[in-house]
Design brief:
The protein has 17 helices and 21 strands. With 569 residues, it is an alpha+beta fold. The protein has a four-stranded antiparallel β-sheet with strand order 3-13-12-9. It is an enzyme of class 3 (hydrolase).
Length: 569
């Protein structure tokens, strides 16, 4: 049984037994440490090669939003339209001027504002979805991964308070004992989500957290800790305020997350071994093993942690371990996960049952296991990081999040990043279609769907995680396009999204090969669909925002690799 904790004003804790992982957090526990703020040194730097973005200029005046000084809960645009700010205590938006001043921007901000969750008067996150037409399930909770695009939107709009509060509250959740049945999870595990509960009788609020004990399949969220580190770095980069990251509690939180990932075991690879359903794809989808999404997030979190750790004894020891792992991980991913037409042809000609250090087919992959679709999908120019590599198994599916994060973290070399963009452009109909963006491609159908998903009725072909189109991925595509010097692709995808999202009430995902239909079980007013669109728009307007979510290439980690034909002009 997990304890319930009552937090008294003097800070003492009273434990009770309960069937839920539930406890309370005093607002002053960590935030009081930030009362004496350091002077901010805000300097926004581009984290990509300096390029001309004059092609993004607009001829029409930008749409502006103004807050009525008499009533801060009302927002007016320059056409005199009144928007209610709902229940938010955050001044959103302060001012917006977008690339094409699309009218749904105002609606998106109002919807994002209504999704804000408060804990004892402070904004601490955004709810997953505000769809009262469907059963809430866990869509009424604040998910760590779901909040990331919301947090970026607030940071880009100059409103860091909610992001700071979120980081502190989830840090407190990490510190509590976590059990699934009789098994205790590692100290560094971050929650998948949390929910604020209000007791109307006592007029008191508590927080209930889910570390995987309530999740589908009871899988702990490996990606939550990585997203937390990435978001902490984004907050620090955006505000110039290092005091939050330098808190002893934050430093300890970073080290606890990394201790889980860097511990010695029986692994012969630098990649992380994972169970199915441990990330954004949180249902059985055959991503067990070494999925690209987790490996890319792992790489990015390691690099962010290097920037955040203090230069003390504990920080130095952790940084040394990170550096060693980064070198091994970058080599492994760039060498064995990368696929272009030359590598595909090499695998097609592989010999099997090779033994010794000179083996070419190091994972003993059977050439007959190559799926037919990949030969037609692979363009002459282009490439991508495949979904999974493990002994005798390669998952050749395209996964959007992993490839975009690979670009943003510089796991992908500049040549590989360009090749990924070439692939997206060449296979636009398959990967983008009528609604950006396919979470994976292609979908599993018939016998393969039955075997791999266990006949999952939610993940039927071209739906949900199985080839569905997810609008939230628009912000990742936009960031990757800007970093790779292809902003025109991001604008093209954004225009597609704008034509449907508001009219369809911001669905969670779309179904069909082209993403033509709102998902059969998709929640409406999905917060990260809203926030993902806003982040994409703001990055296109001001590409310097990319600096908070992008990392430059580390030349020391770049291995000597022979370029394939797909990398050459």
């Amino acid at each position: 049984m997990s304890p319930i904790v009552d937090a008294y004003q003097n800070g003492t804790l009273k434990h009770h037994d309960s069937g839920s992982s539930l406890f309370e957090i005093e607002d002053s526990d960590l935030s009081r440490l930030l009362d004496k703020r350091r002077p901010l040194n805000i300097e926004r730097k581009r984290s990509f090669d300096e390029r001309s973005f004059s092609d993004m200029s607009i001829s029409s005046p930008p749409r502006q939003f103004y807050r009525n000084s008499e009533n801060s809960s009302r927002v007016f645009d320059n056409f005199g339209t009144l928007y209610s700010s709902g229940m938010s205590g955050v001044s959103t938006p302060r001012s917006i001027s977008c690339v094409d001043a699309h009218p749904i921007v105002a609606e998106a901000w109002v919807a994002l504002q209504r999704s804000i969750v408060h804990f004892r008067g402070q904004p601490v996150g955004t709810i997953a979805a505000l769809d009262h037409s469907s059963e809430e399930l866990n869509y009424d909770q604040v998910f760590v991964r779901d909040f990331v695009p919301s947090a970026l939107a607030f940071l880009m709009n100059g409103e860091p308070e909610i992001v700071k509060n979120f980081l502190l509250k989830t840090l407190r959740l990490q510190s509590w004992e976590k059990k699934v049945d009789q098994f205790t999870l590692g100290a560094g595990v971050m929650p998948a989500s949390f929910k604020v509960l209000h007791d109307p009788v006592k007029n008191y609020e508590t927080i209930i957290a889910d570390f995987g004990e309530c999740a589908i399949g009871r899988v702990a969220p490996i990606d939550s800790g990585f997203w937390w580190i990435i978001l902490l770095r984004a907050y620090t980069k955006s505000t110039g305020d290092t005091s939050l990251a330098e808190l002893p509690e934050c430093q300890r939180g970073i080290r606890l997350i990394l201790t889980l990932c860097l511990s010695e075991a029986f692994d012969t690879f630098p990649t992380l071994l994972c169970a199915d359903g441990c990330c954004m794809i949180d249902r059985r989808m055959g991503v067990y093993g070494y999925p690209i999404e987790i490996q890319a997030l792992f790489f990015m979190a390691l690099r962010c942690a290097l920037n955040l750790l203090k230069n003390d004894d504990e920080g130095k020891e952790c940084a040394d371990r990170i550096s060693k792992r980064l070198h091994a991980l970058s080599y492994h991913m760039r060498s064995y996960f990368w696929l272009d037409i030359k590598q595909l042809n090499d695998i097609y000609r592989y010999k099997t049952e090779e033994y010794s250090h000179t083996a070419v087919n190091k994972f003993n992959v059977m050439p007959d296991s190559l799926p037919d679709w990949v030969f037609d999908f692979m363009p002459t120019r282009g490439g991508y990081f495949i979904g999974n590599v493990s002994p005798a198994r390669m998952d050749f599916r395209w996964f959007c999040l992993g490839n975009c994060i690979a670009i943003l973290s510089s796991l992908a070399t500049p040549e590989q990043a360009s090749a990924i963009m070439d692939l997206i452009e060449s296979r636009w109909e398959e990967l983008v279609g009528e609604m950006p963006l396919k979470i994976c491609y292609p979908a599993m159908e018939s016998h393969e769907w039955r075997i791999v998903t266990g006949c999952d009725p939610k993940n039927t072909g071209w739906s949900y995680h199985n080839g569905g189109s997810w609008p939230v991925l628009l912000w990742l595509l936009t960031a990757a396009c800007i970093k790779s010097g292809r902003p025109q692709l991001a604008r093209r995808a954004t225009e597609l999204a704008e034509a449907r999202l508001l009219k369809d009430h911001w669905p969670e995902y779309y179904d069909g090969k082209l993403g033509r239909y709102a998902g059969k079980q998709a929640r409406k007013n999905q917060t990260w669909s809203i926030a993902g669109y806003l982040v994409a728009k703001m990055m296109l307007e001001d590409p310097s925002h990319l600096g908070m979510i992008s990392l430059e290439e580390d030349k020391q980690m770049k291995p000597q690799m022979k370029r394939s034909a797909s990398w050459m002009c």
